[in-house]
Design brief:
By secondary structure, the chain is of the alpha/beta class. It is built from 14 helices and 14 strands. The two termini are 43 Å apart.
Length: 413
């Protein structure tokens, strides 16, 4: 008597539970035909093409690129399973290392452009480099492949890291291929001022097609971005992005605070989450009263002389119209040099924060450290209002850059 096969729903649930275990998924794919599609669904969900620590042939990204390309040519049924692609040009090591082969491969690997065109179901694209990547100097075949990816109706999120554009029109032209984009992250990105604002507007208008559709962003991350006319580019009539539905804004070490203030004002009540890492900005207040939909604020601070002042000043900008539910504060500074915790504690229990449910405070010290314990005692009064969690910064699981990544699942479903 042959065994009764498992219901497909149960098979799917078993394999869903193993979604982040590639060896187990590989084994599941070999069980029988019924197990193959759901195993592939998770196994190929995210493809990473970047140099890794040398542990075999897969540490070479160009070889992995070739293997993937020919695999998809032979088995095109796999293509719909590839929903996320991460590409990195450069070495995983900060300097020259004898154990890695050449990592300058993106513009020389011939299978990369056709591979990009094969990936017709991508939802996320993360393209980074460890040295500056100059868009203007890239081969036309590579640029066309990037255009094809950005034009995909399935694409909802892109991140460019260490890219350089010769002017705003160049970046706007690239983003004009995006029609369904919901999340944009620019990290360590530079846009040169090769043209005046009026010239940029004319160039952008000439490049736009009659049926072009402006994507409505829900997530915007500006992380070490250098753009002279960013405010005009984002908020002007020729902006390639519609920010009226922006729900999450993350800003790190941006050169001009006034642009961010204008952006907050323009977005208004749509904004739900605001993450700011001001860097060396002088302490200043933000008018958050217009952001009546704001539910969450996170502040990352790494300048000891202004850290507490930044926290108290920003929280003082919160009004009862915000209905704030969550506050996150990260202090990457020496706790011994910080004073003013009592003022911060008083702000966290003010009437304007009546909707507050959770406060998370990251400290650059061990929980057994005397200063850590002292801060916990000074903030004990806040625990009567909401849940307070103090945690140690500097651990791999608590790295701040994780918080600069949007919660894609919230708007992609």
């Amino acid at each position: 008597m042959s065994p009764t096969p498992l219901p497909q729903e149960l098979i799917d649930q078993i394999i869903d539970h193993l979604h982040d275990d590639p060896p187990a998924l590989s084994s599941c794919a070999l069980v029988c035909n019924a197990w193959l599609p759901p195993s592939r669904h998770h196994f190929f969900a995210k493809i990473t093409l970047k140099a890794m620590a040398p542990n075999g042939p897969t540490s070479c990204p160009q070889e992995r690129c070739k293997r993937l390309y020919w695999l998809l040519i032979r088995s095109p049924k796999i293509i719909p399973n590839v929903r996320e692609l991460e590409v990195c040009e450069g070495s995983p090591y900060p300097g020259p290392h004898p154990d890695t082969r050449s990592t300058t491969w993106v513009t020389t690997e011939r299978t990369l452009p056709p591979l990009l065109k094969l990936l017709t179901h991508l939802k996320r694209l993360d393209f980074s480099a460890t040295t500056t990547f100059y868009w203007k100097t890239l081969p036309p075949t590579f640029q066309n492949a990037i255009h094809a990816v950005l034009s995909l109706p399935s694409l909802t999120y892109i991140r460019f890291h260490s890219w350089s554009f010769s002017n705003f029109a160049s970046l706007a032209s690239l983003l004009s291929h995006c029609h369904t984009l919901k999340g944009l992250a620019l990290s360590s990105t530079t846009v040169s001022d090769d043209a005046t604002v009026d010239q940029e507007d004319r160039l952008i208008e000439e490049d736009e097609s009659a049926e072009s559709q402006t994507p409505r962003l829900e997530v915007l991350t500006l992380d070490y971005v250098s753009m002279g006319y960013l405010g005009h580019w984002l908020l002007g009539q020729s902006s390639p992005m519609d920010l009226s539905s922006l729900r999450e804004l993350r800003v790190s070490h941006f050169p001009d605070a006034s642009v961010i203030k204008k952006l907050l004002l323009a977005v208004g009540g749509a904004l739900e989450h605001f993450h700011l890492k001001p860097g060396t900005w002088p302490v200043q207040s933000f008018d958050l009263g217009h952001n009546c939909g704001l539910r969450s604020i996170r502040l990352t601070l790494d300048v000891v002389d202004t850290a507490i002042d930044w926290a108290t000043t920003l929280l003082s900008s919160v009004t009862s119209r915000n209905a704030l539910e969550s506050i996150g504060l990260e202090f990457y500074v020496d706790l011994k040099r910080l004073e003013g915790w009592s003022s911060l504690s008083a702000l966290l229990v003010q009437p304007e924060l009546a909707s507050l449910q959770q406060v998370e405070i990251g400290l650059f010290a061990s929980p057994t450290h005397a200063e850590f314990i002292k801060v916990k005692e000074e903030l004990s009064g806040v625990e009567d209002r909401c849940v307070v969690r103090l945690y140690q910064l500097g651990l791999k699981s608590q790295r701040s850059n994780r918080q600069l990544t949007p919660r894609i699942s919230r708007y992609e479903a």
